[in-house]
Amino acid sequence: MIMILIILTIIIIIIIIIIIIIIIIIIIIITIITIIIIIIMMMMMMMMMMMMMMMMMMMMMMMIIMIIMVIVTVKVDVVVVVVVVVVVVVVVVVVVVVVVV
């Protein structure tokens, strides 16, 4: 009787230990997966930011080219110059804000 009890308790203890180990392994796996996902997300975000920056740069270049074309075609009108200056300032401000944020 006593022997049976002892054996039973040992079996129960072993089962509990196994369960705990399995739980720990599962937790570790989950944390690793989450970390990998987070890293991937961060990389994606960085890529997106880089793409955005590139797009902004391209847009700026296009705007400047357009402005130069307009100035050349209109033989430097005062109004055109004012508009150009305003546009450039706005674009620069937007870019700075985006970069800072």
Task: Please give a structural write-up.
The structure is a single chain. The radius of gyration is 33 Å and the shape is rod-shaped. It has two helices and no strands. The protein has 101 residues and is mainly α. The chain has helices at 2-74, 78-100. Helix content is 95%, strand content 0%. The N and C termini lie far apart (74 Å). The model has no long low-confidence stretch (mean pLDDT 83). 0% of the residues are buried.
Entry summary:
Keywords: Membrane, Transmembrane, Transmembrane helix. With 101 residues, the chain is mainly α.
Keywords:
single chain, 101 residues, mainly alpha, rod-shaped
Q: In angstroms, what is the radius of gyration?
A: 33 Å
User: What's the pLDDT, averaged over the residues?
Assistant: 83
Quantity of strands, as a count: 0
Class from helix and strand fractions? mainly alpha
Question: Which percent range describes the beta-strand content?
Answer: under 5%
Q: Give the termini separation.
A: 74 Å
Q: What characterizes the major β-sheet?
A: none
The amount of helix comes to over 70%
Order of helices and strands: HH
Low-confidence stretches: none
What does the overall shape look like? rod-shaped
The number of helices is: 2
Protein name: ABC transmembrane type-1 domain-containing protein
Transmembrane segments: 6-39, 51-72, 78-100
Domain ABC transmembrane type-1: 1-61
GO molecular function, one term: ABC-type transporter activity
